[in-house]
Design a protein that fits this description.
The protein is mainly β. The chain is built from one helix and 20 strands. A hairpin with a 2-residue loop joins strand 9 and strand 10.
């Protein structure tokens, strides 16, 4: 369990299907000075980025939306060998959201009952702490003050929910949202922070599939927020890159 966040561990328990994907998240990276971004799949704090051929191929068609004062621009992300490329990046005051609503369903056994689960990964990248409205089913957004976030689930503030903040070095800190869905963290270092949260929704439903409707018994939502801090203490270095899963 070295440096794996509690949120990732929770995701493992929630999803309950074979392979390494169950403890993973997606997050959005935009290198400094670049005008385009990439959706990654893996463990940010473990310096693990899944690749193709490999677990990256389990994804369907992730979609992404650039949200700005000029409006919204939505695209299908394009798979590369190490992530899903986006044709845009977020400038100051803008945000990007991404999600994969088509990740393969999975079977699991609960007692004597066989159930079908759905994994719904999503991510947001922000460039500041001006308050934003939720767009994702499970969405964590800036709340107006540095290090302060607000968690929404199905458009409503989500109280008493664990949120983990992770840096590139693997340092992680946990917090819990209050009655208004708010949680606050200190951000002492320069560099990239990724906030991670998961919620299990035991509500059955169905979604469109290649061969007709696909029914499921529950959904495991896993969402991240990425923020790059320009000032502060020099960032601790990332650990060695972890080997992708095949």
């Amino acid at each position: 369990m070295n440096r794996i966040t509690a949120i990732a561990t929770a995701a493992f328990a929630l999803l309950g299907f074979a392979g390494a994907a169950q403890a993973h998240q997606i997050w959005i990276e935009q290198p400094a000075g670049e005008k385009t971004a990439v959706v990654r799949f893996g463990e940010f704090g473990e310096n693990l980025r899944e690749v193709s051929p490999g677990l990256l191929d389990k994804f369907g068609k992730p979609t992404a939306t650039l949200v700005s004062a000029r409006g919204e621009q939505s695209v299908d992300a394009q798979k590369t060998a190490s992530g899903f490329a986006l044709p845009f990046g977020a400038a100051a005051g803008e945000s990007i959201v991404a999600e994969d609503a088509g990740y393969p369903l999975f079977n699991r056994k609960q007692g004597d009952k066989q159930t079908v689960g759905r994994y719904h990964p999503a991510a947001r990248l922000v460039t500041g702490f001006a308050p934003l409205q939720p767009k994702l089913v499970l969405d964590i957004v800036p709340a107006g003050n540095a290090g302060e976030f607000k968690l929404f689930f199905k458009g409503q503030p989500k109280a008493k929910t664990k949120v983990a903040l992770v840096t590139q070095s693997g340092w992680a800190k946990e917090g819990h949202t209050d009655e208004q869905g708010l949680v606050k963290f200190d951000l002492p270092w320069q560099g990239t922070y990724v906030a991670e949260v998961s919620v299990s929704d035991a509500v059955a439903g169905e979604r469109p599939g290649a061969n007709g409707p696909e029914k499921f018994d529950s959904v495991s939502y896993v969402t991240t927020l990425t923020y790059v801090k320009a000032d502060g203490i020099a960032a601790l270095p990332a650990g060695p890159a972890a080997a992708p899963n095949k």
